[in-house]
Amino acid sequence: MPLENHERARFLLHRSLVEGISLEDRHWLDAHVGQCAECGRYADLSARAVRALDWFALELDPAAALRVENVVRSRAEGMRSAEAHAKSLWIGTGVAIFLTFTGSAVTWRPLAWLASQWNLPSRVWQIVFAAFWFLPSLLLALLPLFRRRLLGEDSDSKGQTV
Amino acid sequence: MVAVVTAFSRVAEPESQCIARALRRRDSEFIGRMVSRYHYRLFRYLVYWTSNREHAEDLVQETWLRVLERAGQYNGRLRFEPWLFSIARNLAIDHLRKQQTATARHRMCPEDEAGLNLPAPDFESPFFAAARSEDAKRIAAALGALEPIYREALLLRFQEELSLAEIAQVAGAPISTVSSRIHRGLSMLQATLGGGADAA
Predict the structure, then answer these.
(1) Same domain (yes/no): A49, A68
(2) CATH number at B2-199
(3) What is the pLDDT of residue B45?
(4) ipTM of the predicted structure?
């Protein structure tokens, strides 16, 4: 029997196990393996090796499995509540910033009128408006976003103990 | 009618997309069930990598925590298992790298894990204990001589039944490399079984 037939048989045997072969190749392989004792033994060893892998049954510690499940569940819940908190924080900040700008726009005209009544230079009342109205309310609106950093807490849930 | 269509689309939704959605929503009930469902497979995969039950148990937990952190990266278009195993693989490699610094006993790992020295496997423990037949005991000994990347390829192909493309995704290697790893791993196991048969 030509040497290349054995090589082809082994190549096809490997391929049939790893990714599958065509029907035509399967017929050829079966016929060859039926005739060739050496390739038949090789095919048998291949099949036994794969079957033997299936016979490994590692024993699981049910307590360990349960512990992992509890830790992961608890982390998932922690992350969900942290994310919900962060979401509400962003929404609240957005609303506060919006109110800061709309409130400033609404207050601007009455203050301009008052300043004109008191003969205040426009630069002066505008600085007063920015320093005592706009900037404080903007800072207050942004404060929650930096609360954790200011308090020295982690900004995410990675630091949570599990 | 809309409710019926919605309910049907939920039923027909691929499992991978359900998983992706549950991960994004941090659905602890669903995630808990997944942890339970994949526990053995993940544990086995990590034992194949580390050759150590205790380390594998620790890494299973780390893997799931990493899955939660990276939930946004899984979009559900591909199967979940390759993504899960690739996370576990990275953690196992990191773990082995850390171990490498602590042990003098190591061997060079070939191919694309260049520079990763893996500890000599301790095969008296997990595999030998798990071998249920004479063939399996011989295979356990043979697995001890294999590098983890070959054990990994054999496990993913023949026990997890992943496709070559999926194994390539997990291993971050070309399909041809994965195929040759499986071939080499199988050849070593065959040689062991053949030797055992000859000896008998």
Answers:
(1) no
(2) 1.20.140.160
(3) 92
(4) 0.73
